[in-house]
């Protein structure tokens, strides 16, 4: 199949009525992709747009932008340009920081429901597979780049992923296409460039199909990863279906490998970073701890806690400052250091009230209708609130009287005093 027919078919499969965006760097790959997409648009009408991210990392950055503007104008394709600042001190290196900045810019510009095309090709796939293998990645990492996937409510596609760089160069020459060469590609201090210019060419002198074979292995790893995700989802449903709360008895009945798989799957579903191998090993070791043991395993951005026979997977718990307090009129929303809670509280009388909201200090009591004065600590236990959430409840005072207790992270009233009512907005 010719490259033009390949892009024709890919464009025909996109959703009618939604824009197709091409991430345009100005290099050969993306310039060719946009050119072929513009030609395909004549046969399969779709709103076609391009976006260029200006990283400002090299002297030629303005030349890339100028080329993108000329090419988009020639092809009658609307072009968006965004300049980004790359933070190379963030811990993920220059390449990683540039990638994060680029994807953040793409997410800002490409609306949900639209399709975004990237111009990665088969040689890129082989390099990504090798980099993942050298990092000791598992099946998910070795799967490298999928040809298409859902990305933040958008369709992300790589229609050239099965095409070699050599074939792209030949097509570009046939079309007499112009592009800008990225001089940073010659920097062998960058891992990907070192593989591309030094390692892969040597491999191909002995194994001419090395690039294609590595890309094929990445595809097979992707299929295996899909099957593993299906297995993990079956286990999750069998254990109740809540990725944030997994029964310990069900986890310990699984093999260690299957248990690790399920925890990673549950984290992914919850939007949490997966635990590093060492943290995950520690977590599995502590699943067998005695029932009343305090188990808390943390890693950047997330943590796992054991309580009441269940493993809780959650974002890092943010504490309420102990000296925080706020005046409140009882009307929703309640603004707290943990965000807004869509709750309100009102006395049974119609008089206006002035309330004070503060963290729990200890020793508070509420007078409940039909139950008399009750200790807040016991009420929280009766409510089944996990210990870490009990430390984040807020107590509502009317003068010296405690009139209500709310869990702001749950946007839910835990108790209201006699003569008072709590309201939660839907």
Structural summary, described in words:
The structure is a single chain. By secondary structure, this protein is an alpha+beta fold. It has 3 domains: 3-218, HUPs (Rossmann fold); 239-315, Chorismate Mutase Domain, subunit A, CATH 1.20.59; 326-424, no CATH class. It contains 14 helices and 21 strands. It has helices spanning 3-12, 28-41, 61-75, 93-109, 122-134, 139-142, 165-174, 191-206, 210-238, 248-252, 256-269, 277-286, 376-382, 387-390, and strands at residues 20-23, 48-54, 79-83, 115-117, 148-151, 154-157, 245-247, 295-299, 302-307, 310-315, 326-328, 334-336, 339-341, 343-347, 355-359, 365-368, 372-375, 394-398, 401-407, 412-416, 420-424. The strands form 6 sheets. A 6-stranded mixed β-sheet has the order 3-2-1-4-6-5, sandwiched between helices. Strands 11-15-18-19-20 form a 5-stranded antiparallel β-sheet, with no helix packed on it. α1 packs across α2 and α5 (122-134) crosses α9.
């Amino acid at each position: 199949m010719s490259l033009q027919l390949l892009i024709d078919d890919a464009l025909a499969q996109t959703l009618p009525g939604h824009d197709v965006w091409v991430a345009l760097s100005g290099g050969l790959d993306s310039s060719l992709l946009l050119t072929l997409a513009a030609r395909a648009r004549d046969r399969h009408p779709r709103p076609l747009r391009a976006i260029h991210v200006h990283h400002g990392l090299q002297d030629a950055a303005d030349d890339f932008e100028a080329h993108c503007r000329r090419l988009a104008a020639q092809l009658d394709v609307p072009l968006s340009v965004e300049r980004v600042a790359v933070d190379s001190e963030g811990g993920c290196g220059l390449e990683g920081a540039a990638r994060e900045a680029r994807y953040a810019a793409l997410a800002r510009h490409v609306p949900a429901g639209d399709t975004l095309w990237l111009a990665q090709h088969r040689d890129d796939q082989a390099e990504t597979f090798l980099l993942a293998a050298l990092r000791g990645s598992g099946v998910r990492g070795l799967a490298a780049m999928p040809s298409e996937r859902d990305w933040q409510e958008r369709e992300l596609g790589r229609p050239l992923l099965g095409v070699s760089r050599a074939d792209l160069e030949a097509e570009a020459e046939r079309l007499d296409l112009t592009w800008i060469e990225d001089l940073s590609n010659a920097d062998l201090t960058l891992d990907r460039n070192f593989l591309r210019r030094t390692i892969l060419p040597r491999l191909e002198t002995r194994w001419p199909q090395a690039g294609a074979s590595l890309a094929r292995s990445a595809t097979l790893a992707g299929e295996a990863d899909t099957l593993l995700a299906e297995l993990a989802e079956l286990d999750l449903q069998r254990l109740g279906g809540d990725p944030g709360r997994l029964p310990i008895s069900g986890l310990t009945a699984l093999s260690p490998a299957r248990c690790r798989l399920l925890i990673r799957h549950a984290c992914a579903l919850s939007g949490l970073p997966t635990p590093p191998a060492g943290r995950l090993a520690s977590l599995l070791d502590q699943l067998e701890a005695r029932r009343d043991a305090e188990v808390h395993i943390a890693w950047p951005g997330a943590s796992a806690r054991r309580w009441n026979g269940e493993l809780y997977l959650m974002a890092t718990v943010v504490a309420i400052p102990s000296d925080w307090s706020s005046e409140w009129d009882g009307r929703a929303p309640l603004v707290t250091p943990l965000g807004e809670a869509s709750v309100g509280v009102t006395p049974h009388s119609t008089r206006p009230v002035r309330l004070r909201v503060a963290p729990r200090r200890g020793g508070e009591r509420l007078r409940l209708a039909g139950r008399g004065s009750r200790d807040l600590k016991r009420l929280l236990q009766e409510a089944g609130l996990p210990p870490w959430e009990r430390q984040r409840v807020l107590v509502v005072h009317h003068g010296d009287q405690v009139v209500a207790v709310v869990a702001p992270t749950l946007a839910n009233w835990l108790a209201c005093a006699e003569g008072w009512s709590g309201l939660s907005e839907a």
